[in-house]
Amino acid sequence: MKITVVGAGAVGATTADNIARKELCEELVLLDIKEGIAEGKAQDMTQTAALLGFDTRITGSTNDYAKTAGSDVVVITSGLPRKPGMTREELIGVNAGIVKGVAENILRYSPDAIIIVVSNPMDTMTYLALQSTGLPKNRIIGMGGALDSARFKYQLSQHLGASPADLNATVIGGHGDTTMIPLIRYATWNSIPVTELLSAEAQQQIVADTMVGGATLTKLIGTSAWYAPGAAAASVVESIVRDEKKLIPSCVLLEGEYGQKDICLGVPVVIGKSGWEKIIDYKLNAEEQALFNKSADAVRSMNDVLKTL
Ligand SMILES: NC(=O)C1=CN([C@@H]2O[C@H](COP(=O)(O)OP(=O)(O)OC[C@H]3O[C@@H](n4cnc5c(N)ncnc54)[C@H](O)[C@@H]3O)[C@@H](O)[C@H]2O)C=CC1
Ligand SMILES: O=C([O-])CC(=O)C(=O)O
């Protein structure tokens, strides 16, 4: 198994670190456009092997895609992160060019790869990667829901005094401050609906705080987060390489599912060795479906911006 992570910045390096620690592959390549950074971080990470006890071989590459040849899975994290006060959508102008170029280079050397898109605005970058590579839809997965659902569980755990591991909670829709939809109606604490345990006010607060989870961290840190994003991207990789069939909300092409088509948007999907394998229908109620449609409208208008770049 060979995995490439493009972008050796905060999220890319953390994703690679998680992949190596879990020994998800024999060969891991970290690639960046900035001279030396990928080689340096690959060497630094390799020096943890003796301490942590893993065997994954990690190689760094300064923009040499030949080194990525034959990758089974590729994670794209290259691109600008937002700064406090910005939205993810404001990154489109710079990141679209980066993601398109990277996806095309990857495909040249790894025609069979499954691609996970992390760069923001992620829903539109996933759509762009799908359009520009022409890969089968199941091999392009946008990572957002895995992270947003982990943040949803974090918020629930704080209110309930519960272990996040005992919580089951899902965020669908876009990966944006106003487009994500934490499905509180479906959230449970070891099978008990959280709606039976929390006041209406607490539920509203949890949903609101989950939606701005990324913005909150960006304000605190001065750039966007990387620990949970890196762990979330690695969890998607793990479900693929171990063929786990985990049900992970992810951004995929919709062709009528959830009432939408010609758009990549977050829905619960089963992830295994062929990429995303099927979409699970959560049977949204009218209110949730209206939110999903609104989210789709916002993401579609970002996708339209691609035509003007
Ligand atoms: N989908 C999600 O859930 C999340 C998405 N993100 C997004 O991930 C992206 C990366 O964030 P960070 O790692 O924090 O940023 P960063 O600035 O730390 O790292 C980005 C790296 O990409 C590299 N890069 C730029 N152009 C490149 C190219 N053409 N080829 C190869 N490498 C290139 C840069 O040199 C830099 O090292 C951002 O767009 C951010 O918004 C971040 C967190 C979560
Ligand atoms: O907030 C950001 O810009 C980065 C990101 O997507 C996240 O952490 O959810």
TrEMBL record:
| Keyword field contains DNA damage | no
Q: Which residues form the active site?
A: 175
Entry's SUPFAM superfamilies?
LDH C-terminal domain-like (SSF56327), NAD(P)-binding Rossmann-fold domains (SSF51735)
Any Pfam family from its record, for instance, is: Ldh_1_N
Protein origin, superkingdom: Bacteria
Q: What residue stretches are annotated with the Lactate/malate dehydrogenase C-terminal domain?
A: 147-300
Keywords (alphabetical) are: NAD, Oxidoreductase, Tricarboxylic acid cycle
A molecular function (GO) term: L-lactate dehydrogenase (NAD+) activity
InterPro entries linked: L-lactate/malate_DH, Lactate/malate_DH_C, Lactate/malate_DH_N, Lactate_DH/Glyco_Ohase_4_C, Malate_DH_type3, NAD(P)-bd_dom_sf
Reactions catalysed, semicolon-separated, are: (S)-malate + NAD(+) = oxaloacetate + NADH + H(+)
Q: Where does substrate bind?
A: 82, 88, 120, 151
Output the Gene3D superfamilies linked to this UniProt entry.
Lactate dehydrogenase/glycoside hydrolase, family 4, C-terminal, NAD(P)-binding Rossmann-like Domain
Q: Which residue intervals define the domain Lactate/malate dehydrogenase N-terminal in the entry?
A: 1-142
Its Enzyme Commission number(s) read 1.1.1.37
Per the record, the GO terms for biological process are: lactate metabolic process; tricarboxylic acid cycle
Instruction: Tell me the residue numbers annotated for binding NAD(+).
Output: 7-12, 32, 95, 118-120
Checking CDD domains in the record gives: LDH-like_MDH
Its family remark reads: Belongs to the LDH/MDH superfamily. MDH type 3 family.
Q: Which function does this protein serve? A: Catalyzes the reversible oxidation of malate to oxaloacetate.
Return the HAMAP family for the record: Malate_dehydrog_3 (MF_00487)
Query: Any idea what this protein is called?
Result: Malate dehydrogenase
